[in-house]
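We modelled the chain as a single entity of 199 amino acids. Its sequence is:
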Amino acid sequence: MLARLINAPGSLVHRSCVASGRLPGMADQDDPQGQSRPTEPSDPKPALPSGRCHWCGYSLVGLADRGNCPECGKSYSPKTAARLQPWPSALKICVRLGWPIAGLIFAGFILATAGNNGEAWVLGLIIGCAMVGAVGFNSYLQVRSMLRRSLPEGIRTKGPVAIWRAIGTTICVIIILVSVGPFVFFIGCLMLLSQPVTH
């Protein structure tokens, strides 16, 4: 009885439903069963297919392409998430670090077969000194590049890794100085000897 009075023509409920275009008991035109549909997000955030946090190395796969790392709280973006790369293979590491050693072997071969040839001796010594310096200089650049590309910043700049980086840098500088010093001295002696003697 109460429902009939509420839904009766002319009642307040009936007039408000007519004004809104929906009568009591009328199903939704978009949903014949009259059930409400859940609203879907109009602009979902894209998810990262790959990547790690540049600070702590936490995997960001499946998270939004921009936000804060759940592990360390640092902000990230698609660019920073793609910064860390896997470590190079053992073969690539040997090639990147070992080519100065190959140069030293070549210089030793020249000196071993020089005999009484003074020009061969000079060439072998120049190549040898240059390759000794290249061992330290190239090792510093290559190790620094690999650490920056494959090791998170929070690990690379703190703790034991930072200590070993400082020790390695010091050793590389000493090698460069030890090799460049005699090389410069040798070049200076050659320049002095090449000058004509005046009486």
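As a brief sanity check on the tokenised model: The chain is about 60% helix and 0% strand. The chain has two domains: 47-84, 90-194.
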